[in-house]
Specification:
about 290 residues, mainly alpha, two-stranded antiparallel ribbon, 14 helices, globular
């Protein structure tokens, strides 16, 4: 019994996902079990999944970033303005937008670390600021008329079958997992989040590690924002509203500790899939 319980505990997240798929598959087999529906679920999970990995690395280092939704909104608005009003090439516009998001992540981490403010309060304040900036830039109105080639990351497909957002999620997740588990620098995030004082006394520059976690989060939110821009084909000041709580829920379901220092990339992605399967299945069942 103890072995069974230990196995169940180890694979509990995966078991929950399988049970959900079985329930919705039995209830609506003609709709839910279609290949196109599973592709839809994965496509819906791509943006949330990339953002969730950004949230995860902040939590691993003992922080929290509730500004990720506003960061994505800001990317969609700035990208749309550069594409439509400034006439920049989509590659330049997207790179600048990701750079802005990266700087925003650094600024959020720098303020939280240097002022010692509670991460939830600091990032919530930044969320409000960034949301306001996005609305000011676009004057509260969506920005339409994006060039067709700029939509490829959100609507494009590989081999006319696999949506590009899914490819992005897989690539980012693999790189992220390798970075955290197979590199010396990646392990510093676990050490800092597990016991910051012990990590500091052992020579780890914990403040720098925590700031870098927010920078990486900013980069991932920038990538998610680029995909979102292509998907909605416009600049939406409310594109990422509420997504921070979805991401937080997903990574906690996936076993990432709110106290820091604990969590795995694969299980975090499974947490995202659980949320997506729930939304999709309940929608199909009305």
């Amino acid at each position: 019994m103890s072995k069974t319980f230990a196995t169940f505990k180890k694979y509990s997240v995966e078991i929950v996902l399988i049970i959900l798929i079985a329930i919705f598959g039995i209830a609506r087999p003609e709709t839910f079990l279609k290949t196109t529906n599973f592709i839809t679920i994965l496509r819906q999970s791509a943006i949330t999944g990339i953002m969730s990995l950004g949230m995860m690395i902040c939590m691993l280092a003992g922080g929290l970033n509730l500004a990720i939704g506003s960061m994505v909104s800001l990317v969609t608005v700035t990208s749309a303005i550069m594409l439509t009003q400034l006439g920049l090439h989509w590659s330049i516009a997207y790179l600048i937008s990701i750079a802005i998001c990266t700087f925003t992540g650094w600024l959020t981490g720098f303020i939280i670390v240097k002022t010692k403010i509670w991460p939830m309060i600091g990032s919530l304040a930044m969320q409000t600021i960034l949301s306001g900036v996005a609305y000011i830039i676009c004057r509260g109105l969506p920005i339409y008329g994006l060039p067709e080639e700029s939509k490829i990351f959100g609507l494009g497909k590989v081999f006319d079958f696999l949506p590009i957002p899914i490819v992005f999620l897989v690539i980012v997740a693999v790189i992220f997992a390798f970075f955290l588990n197979k590199t010396y620098f990646g392990r510093l995030f676990y050490a800092t989040g597990s016991n910051e004082e012990a990590a500091r006394l052992s020579g780890i520059k914990t403040d720098r590690v925590k700031v870098i976690s927010y920078v990486i989060c900013g980069i991932l939110c920038g990538i998610a924002g680029v995909i979102m821009t292509g998907r909605v084909s416009s600049g939406q000041p409310a594109a990422g509203t509420g997504m921070e709580m979805t991401c937080l829920t997903a990574v906690v379901i996936g076993g990432v500790s709110m106290n820091g220092g604990e969590g795995k990339t694969f299980k975090a992605i499974i947490g995202v899939l659980i949320i997506s399967v729930l939304k999709n299945g309940l929608t199909i069942m009305n």
